[in-house]
Amino acid sequence: MLKGIYLTLLVGPVVPMPVPQIVTDALTSVKVISNTDDKSVFELSFTLSNKSPLQTIFLLAAGSTPLLRVILIVTVNGSPQVLMDGVTTMTQVTPGADPSHSTLTVTGEDLTKVMASNMVDLSGLPYPAMPPEARVALIIAKYAMFGLIPFVVPSFFPDLPLPTERIPTQKGNDLEYVRQLASDVGYVFYIDPGPAPGVNTAYWGPEIKIGPPQPALNLNMDAFTNVESINFNFRTGEKVLPIVFIQNALTKAPIPIPIPDINPLQPPLGASALLPTRIEVLRDTAKASPMQAISRGLAVASSSADAVTGSGSLDVLRYGRLLKARQLVGVRGAGLAFDGLYFVKSVTSTMKRREFKQNFELTRNGLVSITPTVPV
Fold first, then answer.
1. Distance of CA 32 to CAs 40, 67, 322, 328, 360, Å?
2. Does residue 375 belong to any structural domain of this protein?
3. Same domain, yes or no, for 99 and 219?
4. What distance in Å separates the CA atoms of residue 114 and residue 41, rounded to the nearest whole number?
5. How far is residue 263's CA from residue 93's CA, in Å, rounded to a whole number?
6. pTM for the full model?
7. What is the domain range of residue 164?
């Protein structure tokens, strides 16, 4: 097995190609931030000279090509993984003491940037008799040339308006509309790169907190310790119980309904979850349909459920693989209250010569693990 960490850089318009070796040699650092409920971003830093081919690849190509695509593939101990698939948004040159020591910084975003770059404003486009998930799948299908594969989870409380009563219309660009539909039902939308280069999963659904966890993060375990630092916070007094109003069709009287944070795709990860400490009344839900009101309440309830948060850093080579956001991971050695499974909210990967580290953020709904052991 090939030991160590290796980086592969692909650049091009729609179908990127491997860059020349001289470009890889000029690369000094890579930074990638992967988020669950927001766009993922990247930053590449190169040493630049007046005769460097980077002048053509990034500076001139970015000006002549509407979307310059960048794919980063990291191979850890012989296992390749796509770290980022996105497009450049800005290039910056910082002059050095002499022409051979300038720095070229290339920043970019994931392929949600493509969805936000519509040349034509599609506001007002009708979607008759289509539930939100069907509208999202139809929008994502337009970006198949970028390798986007839709993974759309139907909403738990579907709202299918009759064309004789109401026809939904698009508001804003594709990205704004898809995220608005996700927010209305308490979902998230993000684009996850991989598993193969050039292929991406466009996920629209709830934060999935089930599935096989990643190898455990170990601390205070001597030779088995694989994290450099980690700390936890326990926030109390922030969990809310939303109350939505549903209007009676005959009497027009509003009916209050409390909404608990119950979601089959988000089972509790902590044994001692917090009880709601305050009530939030959502009065504007009376104008919506019953299904829309319930979905809005679930969104508010789930957003305040995570009382335990953790943050830390690790060395990828010692951990043995990439820590991935939007998945579960185990924690060992933090004590009875904080050991167990967590949801990885975000990961910031920083790669330099002979160094690859990751900063991470974890969330959980309560203290004390619900599982007696976590996978090593």
1. 7, 19, 12, 19, 12
2. no
3. no
4. 13
5. 48
6. 0.87
7. 132-205
